[in-house]
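Saturday, quiet lab. Running sequence design on the structure tokens for the scaffold JK sent over.
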């Protein structure tokens, strides 16, 4: 029995393009982001991938990416479950700010700490540890059981919500996860063993 989990970060958003901290703000995809999502769906279709269920966040950029992938594999009407547990990390007071402007205001080192440390949140926002505190329980109770039951599961979400899942799936340390970046629109296909360890992992080249 195959146990397949596909993780995809949303395609490029309007605020990605503008170099803004996004978090729980809800900008749409750019034309490039749409192209990335379509390409991901087409590639998964070429691989013969079909899904039993899809999960996404409550943010537009992830929902649209999810739908375009499902369109690409010929499953436009597949059951899709939306939950804020999969939302991007909340950047708090940084949300909506240009990243370069933030560096000028607080300094390069401080902004780097907020962005890349595991457990130091920006003012009013979430650290990666905080993000994991809401994504992992949801993953364990709602997503993983379907994978382990032999379903093919798609999760279209965000850079940091997915990084928190990758940290657990790949058994990465707090230091190792800081160097992990997830590209927009690029699917990662996991095959899991019966004990939830990884049988194989493939980052799909678009």
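Result came back. Writing it out in full:
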């Amino acid at each position: 029995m195959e146990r397949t989990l596909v993780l995809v970060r949303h395609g490029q958003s309007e605020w990605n393009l503008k170099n803004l901290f996004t978090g729980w703000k809800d900008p749409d995809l750019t034309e490039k982001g749409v192209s990335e999502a379509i390409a991901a769906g087409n590639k998964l279709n070429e691989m013969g991938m079909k899904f039993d269920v899809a999960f996404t966040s409550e943010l537009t950029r992830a929902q649209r990416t999810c739908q375009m992938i499902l369109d690409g594999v010929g499953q436009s009407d597949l059951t899709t479950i939306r939950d804020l547990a999969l939302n991007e990390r909340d950047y708090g007071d940084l949300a909506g700010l240009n990243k370069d402007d933030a560096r000028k205001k607080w300094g390069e080192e401080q902004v780097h700490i907020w962005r890349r440390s595991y457990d130091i949140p920006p003012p009013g926002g979430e650290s990666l540890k905080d993000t994991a505190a809401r994504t992992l329980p949801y993953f364990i109770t709602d997503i993983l059981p379907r994978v382990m039951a032999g379903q093919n599961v798609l999760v279209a979400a965000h850079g940091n919500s997915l990084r928190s899942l990758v940290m657990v799936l790949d058994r990465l340390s707090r230091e190792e996860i800081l160097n992990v970046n997830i590209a927009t629109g690029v699917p990662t296909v996991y095959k899991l063993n019966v004990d939830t360890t990884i049988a194989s992992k493939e980052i799909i080249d678009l």
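Notes for JK: The two ends are 27 Å apart (CA to CA). The mean pLDDT is 96. Ask whether to fix the surface positions before the next round.
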